[in-house]
């Protein structure tokens, strides 16, 4: 059974979708052109731009690469680019985290 999407995730997906649409337009690309470049269907790009959180991670990364922001996305989740990550950098990280 699929778990429901949290409100926070839905809001993030919508914000990312709006940003993707803006980047696409800034690059002068149609939805079809971006879909071809990102190896996705036109409808998948439409779903992404409308905030559908079920679009595959691979598609999101391909789209980011094609609008020139993939490196920024990777940097945004780099733990060592945060104060917390830098503070913990000298500590040994656990090999596995168990719940």
From TrEMBL:
InterPro entries: Cro/C1-type_HTH, Lambda_DNA-bd_dom_sf
CDD domains the record matches: HTH_XRE (cd00093)
HTH cro/C1-type domain residues: 20-73
GO MF annotation: an example: DNA binding
Identification of the protein by name: Helix-turn-helix domain-containing protein
Organism: Xiamenia xianingshaonis
